[in-house]
């Protein structure tokens, strides 16, 4: 591993440790109570948290509650910004945010967002490589180093990517590149996104969207 790789690995470790600090609070959420507060979320994220390609809204079903709670807190504080999500998150108090996170975390997502047999085979191969191995020529670590094998997520640390909507993944990476999203620890995602070209983004988005989402 290169010196840059070691430095980035240390940054990843620091990010994971900071995420664990918030885990205890998020784990106390009440899913049944959160279902009531989550009703407005369903307009964009689907009745079962399955996401909506038409609005570019991601799947929330089965995501780690700690991750979801952090995103809501970040929207409320302004460290992550969105014209729809920011004002909505601000209407929720701390208890409601934890409960909403627990509710979506308890749902079972559909198996995958796209069918592998309709995707470009070369894109899928490139996406598989970036997920499992990375690309040393671009100093890119594998997506799985943070997001788990085949993007299945790491509890308390990183969201799952497997089965996520391709349109959301593409939009999210673009936001990291543009600097309009910057709410991760150690600027890991911004660094990774800057090293991805448009073909890589398309490959990652296509590949992960064809995988089965992990069950809660």
CATH superfamily of the largest domain: Cytochrome c-like domain
How much beta, percentage-wise?
under 5%
Largest sheet: none
Question: What percentage of residues falls in helices of 4 or more residues?
Answer: 40-55%
**What is the arithmetic mean of pLDDT?**
89
Terminal CA distance: 34 Å
- Class inferred from helices and paired strands: mainly alpha
Bulk shape: globular
Total number of β-strand segments? 0
CATH-scheme architecture of the largest domain: Orthogonal Bundle
CATH topology of the largest domain: Cytochrome Bc1 Complex, Chain D, domain 2
Oligomer: single chain
Poorly predicted runs of 5 or more residues: 16-24
Q: Write down the Rg.
A: 17 Å
Q: What is the number of independent domains? A: 2
């Amino acid at each position: 591993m290169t010196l840059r790789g070691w430095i980035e690995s240390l940054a990843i470790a620091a990010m994971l440790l900071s995420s664990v600090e918030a885990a205890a609070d998020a784990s106390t959420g009440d899913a049944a109570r959160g279902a009531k507060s989550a009703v407005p979320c369903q307009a964009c994220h689907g009745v079962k948290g399955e996401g909506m390609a038409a609005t570019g809204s991601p799947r929330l079903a089965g995501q780690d509650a700690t991750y979801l709670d952090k995103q809501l807190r970040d929207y409320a504080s302004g460290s992550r910004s969105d014209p729809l999500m920011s004002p909505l998150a601000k209407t929720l108090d701390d208890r409601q945010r934890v409960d909403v996170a627990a509710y979506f975390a308890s749902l079972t997502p559909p198996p995958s967002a796209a069918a592998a047999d309709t995707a470009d085979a070369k894109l899928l191969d490139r996406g598989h490589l970036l997920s499992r191995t990375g690309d040393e020529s671009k100093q890119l670590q594998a997506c799985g180093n943070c997001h788990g094998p085949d993007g299945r997520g790491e509890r308390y640390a990183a969201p799952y990517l497997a089965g996520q909507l391709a349109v959301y993944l593409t939009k999210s990476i673009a936001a990291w590149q543009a600097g309009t999203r910057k709410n991760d620890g150690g600027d890991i995602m911004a660094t990774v996104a800057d090293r991805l070209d448009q073909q890589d983004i398309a490959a990652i988005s296509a590949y992960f969207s064809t995988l089965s989402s992990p069950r809660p």
